[in-house]
Specification:
Length: 239
Amino acid sequence: MSDSTVVLFKDKVLKIQTISEEAENEYHVMEWLQGKLPVPKVLGYERDEKKAYLLMTKVPGEMACADKYLKDPEQLTTMLAEGLQMLWNVDINHCPCIWNLEKKLQMAKYRVENNLVDVDDAEPGTFGENGFKNPNHLLEWLNNYKPEEDLVLSHGDFCLPNIFLANGKVSGYIDLGRAGIADKWQDIALCYRSLLHNLNGKYTGKQYQRFYADMLFEKLGLEPDWDKIRYYILLDELF
């Protein structure tokens, strides 16, 4: 979904991105998270006039959307819930990156004003007859209905392909361009959406059984805040 190029070697990965705040953030937050979470180790970082080059180690395991995990939604949601809690347990006092709502809405405004939002990639019903008229209408709604934030360390894009699993636990977090301080429901919302899409066969056409909507919240020991979940899924439509 991005313009990044990823070159895979036997024991390392080279990620080539257009220079952006997210590219810089990924490098800095990955360095800061060494020893705190299972993230790739930075082997080198260089920039030229247009591109950023991030060389890093490979994380072990397989993506959380691998068939072996989707076949067992209970085990999968247990591991994902533990992965979320691992993030929240990191002390954010010295975190170098902030991605709170104020920051995200500023970025969303820039994307809307510069016609960078892909409405064709939105969830069904977000835009159109029974949804928002256009991205500007959605941005206006997001600004008017900002929820209170419960700030933690957030992955920023907690979707199944960005979480690696091995030996019954999270073995790696990748794609950390939006990682930093944000509301905990940011990650819960995108994790929930990603579970629904992957288990309902959106990407492969294969549907998996034995998953029900509240399973993730049971594993987290939380009552679902559906207003926040909807809010953060809608916010992500502008990115």
